[in-house]
Amino acid sequence: TQLLEQSPQFLSIQEGENLTVYCNSSSVFSSLQWYRQEPGEGPVLLVTVVTGGEVKKLKRLTFQFGDARKDSSLHITAAQPGDTGLYLCAGVSFGQGGKLIFGQGTELSVKP
Amino acid sequence: GAVVSQHPSWVICKSGTSVKIECRSLDFQATTMFWYRQFPKQSLMLMATSNEGSKATYEQGVEKDKFLINHASLTLSTLTVTSAHPEDSSFYICSARDWGLPSYEQYFGPGTRLTVT
Questions:
Q1: Chain A residue with the nearest C-alpha to that of B48
Q2: Does A28 touch chain B (CB under 8 A)?
């Protein structure tokens, strides 16, 4: 069974601080996605990384895909209260018809 | 971007009854749809994968006779929770993808909150 270990599961920080969320696996993924989810809503795609070593930036968010395509990280610079939410990483395995393997999620709370 | 809708957005039903949840792709043909279940403060758990015109593939531990999935058209999949019990109360989310697109391109619905009393 493929697993994607996401950490930390809970994070409470002050506005302006930086943070990093990690997703690690022993399996190789064809791609990895990061989502953000608000309570009572479906996940919203933030980014997809496909190439090993790839780095993508989305304003204050930086996403990295490991060289071996087994791990990824999300770094948020100068967090704001609006960043509060559940962050989910999800990997797509080769030959699985697009089935996503989700990490456990990181509940982020940014206090003003 | 592609849009996936779910109906209803929330439903309350009595224990022992069945409830049907619809997942529709509004502007693309969804050859594959996925059904997830999510408990509060937790991640999404894949329940089953459905391909249009064929039987759904259920994940280990998911009762196929309890969670009936039908994917009869390229734009609609339904999940029926049969003989619902309070422990079936959860947030159910579907996602859809078009086979012609990269495997990572799938779009999530807004979810359906099921409460069984």
A1: A99
A2: no
